[in-house]
Amino acid sequence: MGTFGEIGLPTARKGNEKWKYTNVAPIARIEYKLSKPSVVSLDQIKASAPWDDSWLNFVFVNGVLRSDLGHPEVNGVSVFSIAEEANLDEPCSTIIDYIGSVTDVSDEGFAALNTSFLSDGIAIEIDPEIQSDRPLNIIFFDDGTTNSISHPRVLIVARPNSAVSVIESYVGGGSNCTLTNSVSEIIVGEGASVSHYRLLAETDETYDIGYGRVKLGSKAEFKSRSFFRGAKIGRYDLNILIDGEGATCDLKGLYF
């Protein structure tokens, strides 16, 4: 909590151009509680978010990974629970070392808050030369039964010359005010390609603050499509670091 304690939530003060038009005071006035596990059926998930049984589906309910609702294994794609990897004496992969590598929390209050409360999330590694024809479908479902706050974390590392599509959805129900505060980090290796689709389709009582940080190696390709519907305040701060010659990115979004 050290960094967040120092910088706090962003304000619309003079010089803070990034937050000039976003007033977070309504968010700060609410007394939130951390999300708790909840029982949600697969039918509820399918009715709320993009889904196809042939996809690689990963479902979080109130911030907790539900391995019984998805397909965690496929050749060439490794999936790790951030919580489980962090607690191992000898982690299964070095991918966890990438957490925070492209997210600077020194002046980003919400990202610092996410990092302070990081308890679980998903880390996905696509092996070199793997061209996956099955999208990675990551769903964060909040049942909205309490005035809850959740801090989703996503890490995707696409190794050199790999290719993958990722669908990242934030959905839910209920009538209470909730706050979703997410951070997603995507590292695209040399010659690799990632197509990223982000959907925000929570209720009108939701506050949703999202950070996306992407690092591109040489000749890497990144395509982003963002779709937003609902939410009292919905914000997605996407930054791309081009760290090699010949890298390209294509960013588009739609609010409705």
What does this structure look like?
- With 256 residues, the chain is mainly beta.
- It has one domain.
- 12% of the residues lie in helices and 41% in strands.
- It is built from five helices and 15 strands.
- The strands form two sheets. Strands 1, 4, 5, 7, 8, 10, 12 and 14 form an eight-stranded mixed β-sheet that branches. A seven-stranded mixed β-sheet has the order 3-2-6-9-11-13-15, with no helix packed on it.
- It is globular and about 50 Å long.
- The termini are far apart.
- The model has no long low-confidence stretch (mean pLDDT 88).
Would you spell out the secondary-structure blueprint of this structure?
Elements: H1 2-7, H2 25-28, E1 33-34, H3 42-48, E2 56-61, E3 64-66, E4 77-81, H4 82-86, H5 109-116, E5 122-126, E6 136-142, E7 148-150, E8 153-158, E9 163-172, E10 178-188, E11 193-201, E12 206-216, E13 221-229, E14 233-242, E15 248-255
Parallel strand pairs: 1-7, 2-6, 5-8, 6-9, 7-10, 8-10, 9-11, 10-12, 11-13, 12-14, 13-15
Antiparallel strand pairs: 2-3, 4-5
